[in-house]
Amino acid sequence: MKERSGPLAGVRIVEIDAIGPVPLAAMLLADMGADIIRIARPPSAGVGAWDDVGGDVLHRSRGVAYLNLKNPGDRDQLLALVGAADALIEGYRPGVMERLGIGPDICLARNPRLVFGRMTGWGQHGPMALRAGHDINYLSITGALHAIGDGKSPPPVPLNLVGDYGGGAMFLIAGLLAALLSAKATGRGQVVDACITDGVPSLMSLFYAWEPKGLWRDAPASNLLDGAAPFYRCYRCADGKDVAVGCLEPQFFAQMVKRLGLADRGYDQNDRAGWGAMAADFATTFATQPRDHWAALFAETDACVTPVLSMAEAPDHPHNRARASFFRRGSIAQPAAAPRMTGTPPGITEPYETSAAQQIIRWSDRAA
């Protein structure tokens, strides 16, 4: 295997195969140069309806080895890897790693400087810690899901970007990197308890700060950033496609209204009493032309009006093409490595199969 480059080159991580936040976190860390081995169950003969976890993209930039962690010999191989690693990340329910004999106490005894990253929805303790759940359930107890939607229907499902990936993977990465810096300085590892129901409230910090001051109403579609404001929402166009309007600042609002031919209406942008009529005017006007007409009309302005693109369209948008934000591998459009770095640029490699034994040999300079 070619040695990795990037800002995390030289960092060695064991990834216990999982779904949701863990593979995304591992992908991003691997894109940034971490040497990661993903430990997966031996392949089964059948493939279930939910067995495709996006591995064509999410498993890139690292190797996979197959171990049965209920088998003592395979478990010993994992512990040998742990002895040479900087970190381990896993996404099992609380107690599973301990029952397998590879919990944090055993792993840290094997390697005292190890960072043991744990990713769950409910956390390692609390009355719901052992219950099943998914992104939508974790969001439901944070205040975030309630804040999304039109207030007339049940909240929409916001993909799994907010919980799994925003409150989960990103906080796992932040905690892992912070603990790695600490371990480098002190020689002591630790457990990182990354929990979606902890991470999402942190993402909601602005709104929890505003609410007691009367700057945010605890009701969906009632506020500046939740669809209530007619100048911060989406509108349907004549061809059934949509545009996104985000002209919060008065100078940008003025440009948008002028281009729509509505400058003579004399809108008071922040007068909530006029928002209903304003929204109706905007909706009627946008509905007179197709989306791409409006995209072209506003393209060279600061009116903050942009086309709502489909997944199929997004890779070919001129801005995304100029930045090479996507690339194609076969029939799949993939996001490029992010964020960009000037001195140690991240990179992407094909996923590959290896074995725990081969990886132990590669990491033998640190094997315990």
What does this structure look like?
With 368 residues, this protein is an alpha/beta fold. It has helices at 21-31, 55-58, 72-84, 96-99, 104-110, 135-140, 161-186, 196-203, 205-210, 250-259, 275-286, 291-298, 318-322, 356-362; strands at residues 12-16, 35-40, 63-66, 87-90, 115-120, 190-195, 232-236, 242-246, 305-307, 326-329, 332-335, 352-353. It has a 7-stranded parallel sheet with strand order 6-5-4-1-2-3-12, with helices on both faces. Strands 7-8-9 form a 3-stranded antiparallel sheet, with helices on one face. It has a two-stranded antiparallel sheet with strand order 10-11. A hairpin with a 5-residue loop joins strand 7 (232-236) and strand 8 (242-246). Helix 1 (21-31) crosses helix 7 (161-186), helix 3 (72-84) packs parallel to helix 14 and helix 7 packs across helix 8. The protein starts with 11 loop residues before the first strand and ends in a 6-residue tail after the last helix.
